[in-house]
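Hi support team,

I submitted a single chain yesterday and got back a structure, but I'm not sure I'm reading the token output correctly. Could someone confirm the output below corresponds to the sequence I sent? I've pasted both exactly as they appear in my results page.

Thanks,
R.
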Amino acid sequence: MSLAPRAVLVHRRTEYEELLARHGTHGQAAFFLSSRGRSIDEVARRHEDTRQALREVAAAVPLTWRSTRVERADLDRFLFAPEDVVVVVGQDGLVANTAKYLSGQPVVGIDTDPGRNPGVLVRHRHADAAALLRAATATGGRAEELTMVEAVADDTQRLLALNEIYLGPPGHQTARYRLGPDGETAPGEAQASSGVLVGTGTGATGWLRSLWLERGGTMPLPAPCDARLLWFVREAWPSPATGTSRVAGELGRGQGLRLTVESDRVVVFGDGMESDALELTWGQSVRLGIAERSLRLVT
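Hi R., thanks for writing in. Yes, this is the structure output for that exact sequence:
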């Protein structure tokens, strides 16, 4: 007997909840903001809008389904099941934070603050949740397969990301490494920089785009479903021992970029989730390329 679908509602703490966690009470949080010329009213309103959206989405889950909730901070400890339908209630970035833990489950993005969020990944309103949940499990339901990027270390550590993967020093120091195409017999170019960014078409609306603009936008940006990645080295430093001839490029399916660490420590994290990072030390290498998995975003 197959299990009934389970709706997994993903959310994060609101700004209001973070203020309460820091200051203890509504009154103390309001005093803190007012002493800096700001009002708590707008923050409280957005909090209530988010709570209301969560309530309405939860009420839209069919009675025959199971349901649960998970907060962003607990994603790395939550076990998603094959029959899950993931409903992200919040900002675009929350979809990206969730994507790395999934393996083909359909994702519905619900925008809790239209006009404030770009709505690239959270494209729907909470009033549409019931219809979207039915569509997510219907045969032939409409969904986009968004390309993801993957980092695989030589010790089998693996990391997935929807927007981008960053490799660099854990602080404000300089990372030293060798960089070159995967499979190349030569060791790669020795470089010193503040890190390397490898991004997807979804990431082309954020951090990747800013680097692309800095470099003059000579390479066409990929679309979210394109099997193509762009990569950029940030602030490569020329010296007698380090070069700058490989600072940007693109990767298609089957192609890889290999980085071999030549400093004490390099961290690798995706979509801004520094708390869930890989750590590489001197001599270790990591391959970056298009992931076999993609994010199935319900449209």
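A quick pointer for reading it: The helical segments are 15-23, 26-34, 41-60, 92-99, 129-137, 207-214. Let us know if anything else looks off.

Best,
Support desk
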